[in-house]
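Box 3.1 A note on notation
Throughout this textbook, protein chains are presented in two layers. The first layer is the amino acid sequence; the second is a token string describing backbone geometry. Keep the layers aligned when reading.
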Amino acid sequence: MVVQSQSLLDDGERQRLRDQYSEIATLAGGLAHEIKNPLSTISMNLELMAEDLADADSPRDHRLLTKIQSVQTECRQLDEILNAFLQFARVGELDLVSADLNDIVRKFIDFYGSNAAEAQLEIRSHLPSNLPPVLLDRSLVRQALLNLAINAQQAMPQGGLLEFQTYHREGRVFLEVIDSGGGMDEKTRAKMFHAFFSTKAAGSGLGLPTVRKIVEAHNGSITCESEPGQGTRFTISLPMATTK
């Protein structure tokens, strides 16, 4: 089964979506300010309390330290969710340049290599030299690659194979990100691009929705092929840069 998210929009529709994204980003910035300041104060005081109890000997103090550490974990999780939401909300305004997608993928693989090695992931790439240029926001595409790589790594907790492949046909450039993980069932595939949906207890549920928004902001599409026990393949399709 293939799950697809596609957005081939006219200029007016894209501008309307950009305006909506901009409004959401403004609201998200205000929300971040209201939450991050008290959250930072709470986290700082929890750290000071944990330091005071670090050398404590009494069972009561040990129990209190355990509770403090539990609250610290929840604060860190809240901060990660907030940052993921801000990332999700701010997608929309692009700094487009004509770029070689292969070059961005290579640089990302170099960046992610140490994480992959630590997670016992083997990375393979198949990047043909004749790939046409595309109009890209480099930082956003790099973020999309990172989100897809993290998603793949989480699907392979015992290690596995992560592949990046590019090719072109019929005026479009394609990027495939393939993992050898456990795959997804039909229910998960149907919801994976929904904001805040996650199969992981500590997940924000915004990684793949953010990828979708980045791809659609580039007037592209993303599809997913996955079956339980068969791994997962994400395919991103982007328009070639027009030549004058």
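The longest strand covers residues 160-169. Residues 124 and 163 are 5 Å apart (CA to CA).
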